Amino acid sequence: MIAGSAEAEPAKVIAGSGPPGEPIPAKVLTGSAGPASAISGGTSVARSRCEPFRQTIIEKLEQGLSAQRIHQDLTDEHDFDGSYCSVQRFVRRLKRASPAPFRRMECGPGEEAQIDFGTGAMTTAPDGRRRKTHVFRIVLSHSRKAYSESVYRQTTDEFIKCIENAFHHFGGVPKTLVIDNLKAAVTKADWYDPDINPKLIAFAEHYGTVFLPTKSYTPRHKGKVERGVDYVQENGLKGHTFNSLVDQNQHLINWEQSVADTRIHGTTRKQVGKVFEEVERPALLPLPLERFPHFNEGQRSVHRDGHVEVDKAYYSVPPEYLGHRLWVRWDGRVVRIFDSRMRQIAVHARREPGRFSTQDRHIASRKISNVERGAGWSLHRAKLIGPETGRWAEAMLQNRGIEGVRVLVGLLSLANRHESERIEHACRLAHSHGSYRLRIIRELIKRKLPDTSGGTSGGSSGGGGQEQFEFTSEHPIIRSLSDYQRLVTSSFDIVRPRNVDPRNVTARNVGPRNVAAPASVEQRLADSSAPEGGPEAASDKISVYSTDASARIRTNYIRNNDHERHTDDDAEATSPLGDASNAGCPASGGGWQQPEPRRVPGTGVGR
Fold first, then answer.
1. Which CATH architecture fits 296-367?
2. What pLDDT score was predicted for residue 49?
3. How many CB atoms lie within 10 A of CB 551?
4. What is the distance in angstroms between the CA of the first residue and the CA of the last residue of the chain?
5. Where are the domains of the chain?
6. What angle do CA 364, 368, 370 make, to 5 degrees?
């Protein structure tokens, strides 16, 4: 609090000594207010140049401005001609003249406990070695009830053990724990946002309390326990030696009950133990059913294989934490891994040294091969390419068995380089031909796809499947069956001898001169357009013509064979008449063609 302006106070004058007869200027110490004046040998001393701006300086100090800033503002705004040092001295005197009082903080029952360490008594081992100890002390802020315990080291585990023992000694848990910034509890001191040891945070969550570190180098923030540590050192341990740590702790328990709890506290003016039993114990939080599970804890770096090392065994973490520093907690059964914000990211059962514990979800997806994923996963992916690909994949697995899994992997890899339409087309063709080799699929993919607009791309069929068409019975370019019937009938009229009864045909009365000239197609169609007797008569006519043609063919074949026997006696005999007629008849499928008629010398008859 800055002192305001007040009436002028006389300055304190320290008179000096000097040569006789010469006036000696007085050394003036100005007060906090009013013009400074003093009389020493009748000489007056001028007051500070900052005095006319006292109220302005006080207001700026209340705003939190520094002496340098105040000097700048006075120079700019008020044409102040004094030096910076004069402003600095004036500000210093104002602050020294009115120090701010301390504020006393009192807490309700069960609200707060303060914790600190002090120097304990020495212990002497049987072999004569002396060892230093540290005394832990916790004080409940309302009743001043305390608990003390000596330890050899101020580690996190020892700190937690002492606090837990104090809770069970009190029979309850206070809502807040005020501590200083010891390394066992605070990893990074910060008045506004300190970093507390994660193990301590887990301990506080287990008991339902919270840790509140004080400001660094500010012991008055936990003044109750500061005085309590002095009390146990002076009254409880000073002048005592102990053979072991157990003896010292037992002495402290007895001292707390017989001395510390029965005293009348100097501030509250009440007996400590009585206030605790009547007022504060009922206000404490209840104890949990189980004690805090103690475990080992430390930071570990994630190796390149995605594992952290704990007691020479290796445990996997999610792949996104590769190269990070993580917190690890472990006991005899379980290993728990946490990120920097103490969020649990993995839990493993303890493994023997040299063994690995790897969870499937901790393996990067790009590091899992499709073969490991199984045939079911590969089949599902194949069906996503298209239905034809899915059908080919299923048939291939049924045909090739377990070796088909790798074929499926190769099929899926084709989707990275080719369009799904090409793969679908290739699988459809391969499946229709029962081919289940991957190289066939690759070859079919290289071919061009068929043009769905009616042609083929690039003039190639592209290996397309056979198209099925339905037969059309009626079309403008298709003749009716009756037209073809008349055409067949007229065709037989070309070879039928005119005015010859087919039943009397012999080899002598059939020749080229006896065969009439063929009629035109139009004439034949006109002649056969209306046969007498209807369809039955036309059918009979065709049968007669067929018989006439067969007889003529057999006659010509016999004549040819007779001529060959006369001209070549060494020639081998030909087939019998029945076989020759069957071989040469168009009806038997022999493909025989009628030979050119030849003239027999001396007869004038064609053979």
1. Beta Barrel (2.40)
2. 86
3. 16
4. 154
5. 12-97, 112-283, 296-367, 370-453, 482-588
6. 145
